[in-house]
Amino acid sequence: MADYSPQRGAISDRLARLALYRWWRRAIVAGVDHEAVLARVIEESGGSPRFVFMTIMSAGIAVLGLLLSSPAVVIGAMLISPLMGPILGFGFALALFDFAELRRALKALVMGSAAAVAFTVLIVTLSPLQAPTAEIVARTRPNLFDLAVALFAALAGSFAIIRGRGETIVGVAIATALMPPLAVVGYGLATRNLPVGAGALALFVTNFITIALSATAMARFYGFGHHLSHRQSWAQTLTLLLVFVAMAIPLGISLNRIGREAVATAQARTLLKERFGESARVTQLELDFGARPLTIRAVVIAPRSASVKLADLRAALADRLGQQVRLDLDRVMLEAGAGAIEAQREELRQAGEGAAGEAQRLAALTRMIALATGIAAEDVTIDRDHHRATAPATPLPGATLATYRALEARAAEGNDGWAVAIVPPQQPLPAIAFADNADALDPEVRAAVETSAWAARRWNVRALGVPGLPEGDPPARPNLAQRRALAIAALLNAWGVTPLPAPAEGQRFALKIVPDAQLG
User: How far apart are CA 21 and CA 17, in angstroms?
Assistant: First the structure.
């Protein structure tokens, strides 16, 4: 008797695929107005004077945010960036095998990108701030998180334009993946810093390819195919397929490299934890994959009982990573129970006792201040001539000016000969409240006035307005509000801040910041 089971299995598979196809056509594709979506994509994907102008303005805001190391300003640039249009137009053109639309979208993208880079070059050239900030450095190498941002932004953008929901928000997400790297390309050209410019360009191209191919995949999923494109020739179809493959190759290479670097970093961190013990903390770990041999820089905080020979550690890393390595390791050995700030202070003390002396001491001081302020070490400004370290503090939830002043005092402890200045984020000056019928500066009032004066000096504010302070010479018999204001003015003068008259207020008030423009 003949065995029909293979034929029956093949028929069952075909029926299952046919059922899945019918479900896909009915549940996914049928609900999309393909003609309307295509008309919208084509309308927004071409170049125009408005597109170029908005791209230039977005790039200008982005590069200023990068130079100021201000994420808020960089995000603000994304709100006006029009890059989503041509990028999604490019992706849909690949899905449709529409060569004419692909050229149109690519032309708009190249035109806008060139104008954006040229404008950022001009801004950076004219800017007095040209030092690379943490925001700039972060966009000089593609990593897995950058690709994830580009991928999710492209999927969200494609879905939004197909389903007609939230286009503005996802447009911001797509611009976040593209505009900052584009601005850093201009920065690299303006400062003649080839590694920075080339790294940012690699990030831009990688994100662009990721977004375009993701948009293509999403468009195909919703039923956008070559049957929707008119006057499509086989030659154009073959060309577009080659474009698709050519774009996928560098993305695959980039993904492979990023994956290998991520694995190597994780392996190095794991080995350090293994060798120094579970109670150790790897506070900084950098792998310079462009160096030969591979350079690993790390800071490990561990109990004093954990002792590892540097040569053994280097050999273990080389064996784990499968290549020769150069290890630059800073070890902070602590007694049990030491906290994070104390750890950095202990490192500072140990560095001062070592042979490298001053250089190690400055590095330890920088890391300690960075830890206290919540910023990257490279954002700490070291003035060797005047022995002064300055750092802008990041906004902390619930933190007041008194909090930042206390952080500065704590970071400055034990740093003989060095002054530490922490610049707090802008916020209201503390309230001053006198007791009933009192004009003396009790401890709480004195602390509020001194904190106001401290903040003014950190913000380079020369004068503060004192409510109730009389103009000119003090009156012979000042009233209560005037006596309070005169006491505050005397304390401000002691801090080197000029007191100026301001309208009197109630029993509870705050000092007023006086802009330099009002000082004459």
Answer: 6
Higher pLDDT, 4 or 452: 452
- Which residues have a Cβ under 8 Å from the Cβ of 503 and sit 6 or more positions away? 467
Bridge-based pairing state of the strands 463-467 and 498-502:
parallel
Q: Please check whether residue 301 is in contact with residue 277, taking contact to mean a CB–CB distance below 8 angstroms.
A: no
Helix (H) or strand (E) holding 334: strand 325-334
Contacts of 420 (CB under 8 A, 6+ apart): 369, 388, 389, 391, 408, 411, 412
Share of the chain residues as helix, strand and coil, in percent rounded to the nearest 5:
60, 10, 30
* Omega prior to 293 cis, within 30 of 0: yes
Q: Which two tokens stand for residue 281?
A: 């903390």
Q: Are 469 and 481 in contact (CB under 8 A)?
A: no
Q: In the 8-state DSSP scheme, what is residue 27?
A: I
Spatial contact of 299 and 332, defined as CB atoms under 8 Å apart: yes
At which residue do the structure tokens 């991520």 appear?
262
Write a three-state SS string for 392-427: ECCCCCCCCHHHHHHHHHHHHCCCCCCEEEEECCCC
Distance CA(135)–CA(184), nearest Å, equals 9
Of the chain, the end-to-end C-alpha distance in Å amounts to 109
- Asked whether the beta carbons of 393 and 374 are under 8 A apart, the reply is yes
Rounded CA separation 461/519 (Å):
11
Instruction: State the Cα–Cα distance between residues 105 and 391, nearest whole angstrom.
Output: 44
Q: What is the pLDDT of residues 371-388, one digit of tens each?
A: 767 777 777 777 766 677
Q: What's the rounded mean pLDDT across residues 3-17? A: 65
Cβ atoms 191, 212 nearer than 8 A: no
Asked if residue 417 lies in contact with residue 387, where contact means CB atoms within 8 angstroms, the answer is yes
Residue 406 confidence (pLDDT) above 80: yes
DSSP H helix total and E strand total for the chain: 17, 11
Torsional sign, CA 479, 485, 491, 495: negative
Counting Cβ atoms within 10 Å, is residue 265 exposed (0-12), middle (13-18) or buried (19+)? middle
Average pLDDT over residues 243-265: 73
- Alpha-helical segments (H) within 164-193: 167-190
The 3-state secondary structure of 57-123 reads HHHHHHHHHHHCCCHHHHHHHHCCCCCHHHHHHHHHHHHHCCHHHHHHHHHHHHHHHHHHHHHHHHH
CB of 422 within 8 A of CB of 411? yes
Distances in Å between the alpha carbon of 189 and those of 42, 138, 199, 326, 378? Answer: 33, 17, 12, 31, 22
Are residues 160 and 219 in contact, defined by beta-carbon separation less than 8 angstroms?
no
471 compared with 332, residue with greater pLDDT: 471
